[in-house]
Automatic annotation (TrEMBL), chain A:
Keyword annotations: ATP-binding, Ligase, Nucleotide-binding, Protein biosynthesis, Transferase
Keyword set includes Nucleotide-binding: yes
Any one GO BP annotation for this protein: glutaminyl-tRNAGln biosynthesis via transamidation
Keyword Oxidoreductase: no
Family recorded in the similarity comment: Belongs to the GatC family.
Name of the encoding gene: gatC
Record Pfam families: GatC
Quaternary data: Heterotrimer of A, B and C subunits.
Enzyme Commission designation: 6.3.5.-
Name of the protein in question: Aspartyl/glutamyl-tRNA(Asn/Gln) amidotransferase subunit C
GO molecular function: asparaginyl-tRNA synthase (glutamine-hydrolyzing) activity; ATP binding; glutaminyl-tRNA synthase (glutamine-hydrolyzing) activity; transferase activity
Catalytic activity: L-glutamyl-tRNA(Gln) + L-glutamine + ATP + H2O = L-glutaminyl-tRNA(Gln) + L-glutamate + ADP + phosphate + H(+); L-aspartyl-tRNA(Asn) + L-glutamine + ATP + H2O = L-asparaginyl-tRNA(Asn) + L-glutamate + ADP + phosphate + 2 H(+)
Primary role: Allows the formation of correctly charged Asn-tRNA(Asn) or Gln-tRNA(Gln) through the transamidation of misacylated Asp-tRNA(Asn) or Glu-tRNA(Gln) in organisms which lack either or both of asparaginyl-tRNA or glutaminyl-tRNA synthetases. The reaction takes place in the presence of glutamine and ATP through an activated phospho-Asp-tRNA(Asn) or phospho-Glu-tRNA(Gln).
Protein's organism: Mesorhizobium denitrificans
Automatic annotation (TrEMBL), chain B:
Residue ranges of every copy of the Asn/Gln amidotransferase domain listed in the record: 351-496
Species this chain originates from: Mesorhizobium denitrificans
Name by which UniProt lists this protein: Aspartyl/glutamyl-tRNA(Asn/Gln) amidotransferase subunit B
GO molecular function: asparaginyl-tRNA synthase (glutamine-hydrolyzing) activity; ATP binding; glutaminyl-tRNA synthase (glutamine-hydrolyzing) activity; transferase activity
Catalytic activity: L-glutamyl-tRNA(Gln) + L-glutamine + ATP + H2O = L-glutaminyl-tRNA(Gln) + L-glutamate + ADP + phosphate + H(+); L-aspartyl-tRNA(Asn) + L-glutamine + ATP + H2O = L-asparaginyl-tRNA(Asn) + L-glutamate + ADP + phosphate + 2 H(+)
Keywords: ATP-binding, Ligase, Nucleotide-binding, Protein biosynthesis, Transferase
SUPFAM superfamilies noted in UniProt: GatB/YqeY motif, Glutamine synthetase/guanido kinase
Enzyme Commission no: 6.3.5.-
Function comment: Allows the formation of correctly charged Asn-tRNA(Asn) or Gln-tRNA(Gln) through the transamidation of misacylated Asp-tRNA(Asn) or Glu-tRNA(Gln) in organisms which lack either or both of asparaginyl-tRNA or glutaminyl-tRNA synthetases. The reaction takes place in the presence of glutamine and ATP through an activated phospho-Asp-tRNA(Asn) or phospho-Glu-tRNA(Gln).
């Protein structure tokens, strides 16, 4: 598997990362090198192997349904560039 | 996913166009907010209507380094809902990240389930109707899957000329997305499906079903085709928030698509919005890449696993569901399918009815609950929870009719009094002298008086026996409607020598 520069630019845009034409060309090469390494893994037959989700076998921790958090609106918006009455203010987005 | 057509085209449901009949094909994705105290992956409250950003933890705000921990109750509720949909429960499911950018999604992705949802295929039996003859038709709507996911925050665009306001109180609240198969063929079927789904989650107590508060909302997929033909290209109408709007949106959208096709055009697969004020759907700003969500398993969460014993225990504790309740009312109490459908349509109504019907005549109780009580509530615009008459009071009225203490007609008056003034029906009957007169002596006296006062009518009645009804009416009037009508009728006929 390999990617071309169009794909690299598209993925960058989807991830909202600004990438110049020059960087995109360089990254295409780098990504294809990485994909080449990954490709090698395909040589191993893993048909009957379950995908590993954890290094040691463990079950997902669950939480009880009780309210233990919240009531800190001022903290939540503390770092926001613009707020009003504890709302976040963002440049207008309308569908 | 390969789509299977499970339905036989039915001309009753066709929409006629300029070039002949068309069939609409509908599938639905319903988002139902799980009833829980805290969010799916954080300990913040889910309460509706809190001050802005008050029900937000650092997890919900996606602060760096925060990790999600799943709420066990949400898992339990999703499984119970799956069981209520008679669906496959998957003992192992996986959370994925659905990546997109929007200001009310601070993580930049929604934690959802993509390839391995917690609940697989199921079925919902939907009663469609009544038609003009009062008949219901049962159809089966397939459920493709149910998965757990996070809700996003809420944006408001009308508070400021250049800024949008974002409140993350909803962010991270647990949702069940229930995806149907494209098994519906009319707007009525779609409305009935959504209604039934809401009834089921309310019976189960897994979602409050309040569409006004956004606890339930539907994305509706609509396409049209020539009857029995291949599926057409669909459009998705996003976030419809009432059952009535679902119907209107489908009607409009089907017409729109038929118009385009009949003019020789083709349908673009796109996302549309329903505008309830204009009653029309319109295209959302086209986002070419919006559908490239780049799903991948969330590395912050292990697979969700539980054993069959856990599922079985939940299954055992499931309350009686509307379909089962309906069958029981029909088979045990002898109600008609129609009456039973009406009574089970809302859990609160069914609960009320069962209190009235306990060790009483089920049919009589059903008549009073459906016609008088629900009719009155409808007129007053009140839900059954605010009924001015309690099940015990209505039960007492039913007892009084059954014992013959009051006639059906007096019962209506008594119902009015209890509705407006309250009180114990048995005492009211005594204190207001509403008892039916079954004392033959008293009735005889009244009959004789009417006959004596109207010799001319007596002559006419001998020639024309149907006039006996007039005498019955006079006697009923004279006794204030309290005489037993059957007894009066018998006596009048005997005295007039009509038998």
């Amino acid at each position: 598997m390999s990617v071309d520069i169009t794909t690299v630019k598209r993925v960058a845009r989807l991830a909202r990362i600004a990438v110049s034409e020059e960087d995109a060309a360089r990254m295409t090469g780098e990504l294809n090198t990485i994909l080449g390494f990954v490709e090698q893994l395909n040589e191993v037959d893993v048909r009957d192997v379950e995908p590993m989700t954890s290094v040691t076998p463990m079950a997902m921790k669950k939480r009880e349904d009780i309210v233990t958090d919240g009531n800190k609106a001022a903290d939540i918006v503390a770092n926001a560039p613009a707020t009003e009455e504890n709302f976040f203010l963002v440049p207008k987005v309308v569908e | 996913m390969s789509i299977v057509d499970t339905r036989t085209p039915d001309p009753k449901r066709f929409i006629s166009g300029a070039t002949g009949d068309w069939e609409v094909v509908i599938g639905m994705e319903v988002h139902a907010q799980i009833t829980s105290n805290s969010k799916l992956f954080s300990g913040a409250s889910t309460e509706f209507g809190a001050a802005p950003n008050n029900n937000v933890s650092l997890v919900d705000a996606a602060m760096p380094g925060m990790l999600p921990v799943i709420n066990e109750e949400c898992v339990r509720q999703a499984i119970r809902t799956g069981l209520g949909l008679r669906a496959q429960i998957n003992l192992k499911s996986v959370f994925d990240r659905k990546n997109y950018f929007y200001p009310d999604l601070p993580q930049g992705y929604q934690i959802s389930q993509f390839k391995q949802p917690i609940v697989g295929e199921g079925t919902v039996t939907v009663s469609v109707g009544p038609d003009s003859k009062g008949n219901f038709e049962d159809i089966e709507v397939g459920v493709e899957r149910l998965h757990l996911e996070q809700d996003a925050g809420k944006s408001m665009h009308d508070q400021h000329p250049t800024m949008s306001y974002v409140d993350l109180n909803r962010s991270g609240v647990a949702l069940m997305e229930i995806v149907s198969k494209p098994d519906m063929r009319s707007s009525d079927e779609a409305k009935a499906y959504l209604t039934k789904l809401r009834t089921i989650v309310r019976y189960l107590g897994t979602c409050d079903g309040n569409m006004d508060e956004g606890s339930m909302r539907a994305d509706v997929n609509v396409s049209v085709r020539k009857p029995g033909g291949a599926f057409g290209t669909r459009c998705e109408i996003k976030n419809v928030n009432s059952i009535r709007f679902v119907g209107q949106a489908i009607e409009y959208e089907a017409r729109r698509q038929i118009g385009i096709l009949e003019d020789g055009g083709s349908i673009d697969q796109e996302t549309r919005l329903f505008d309830p004020n204009k009653g029309e759907t319109r295209s959302m700003r086209s986002k070419e890449e919006a559908h490239d969500y780049r799903y991948f398993p969330d590395p912050d969460l292990l697979p969700l696993e539980f054993d069959q014993a856990y599922v079985d225990a939940l299954g055992k504790d499931l309350p009686e569901l509307p379909d089962d309740k309906k069958s029981r009312l029909v088979s045990d109490l002898g109600l008609s399918a129609y009456d039973a459908s009406v009574l089970v349509s809302e859990k609160a109504i069914a609960d009320y009815f069962e209190k009235v019907a306990v060790s009483r005549d089920g049919k009589l109780a059903a008549n009073w609950v459906i016609n008088d009580l629900m009719g009155g509530l409808n007129k007053a615009g009140k839900p059954i929870e605010e009924s001015p008459i309690s099940p015990d009071q209505l039960g007492a009225i039913v007892d009084l009719i059954k014992e013959g203490t009051i006639s059906g007609k007096i019962a209506k008056d008594l119902f009015e009094i209890v509705w407006n003034e309250g009180g114990d029906p048995k005492e009211l009957v005594e204190s207001r002298g509403m008892k039916q007169v079954t004392d033959t002596g008293a009735i005889e006296k009244a009959v004789d008086e009417v006959i004596a006062a109207n010799p001319d009518k007596v002559e006419q009645a001998r020639a024309k026996p149907t006039l006996a009804g007039w005498f019955v009416g006079q006697v009923m009037k004279a006794t204030g409607g309290k005489a037993n009508p059957q007894a009066v009728n018998d006596l009048v006929k005997a005295r007039l020598g009509l038998e």
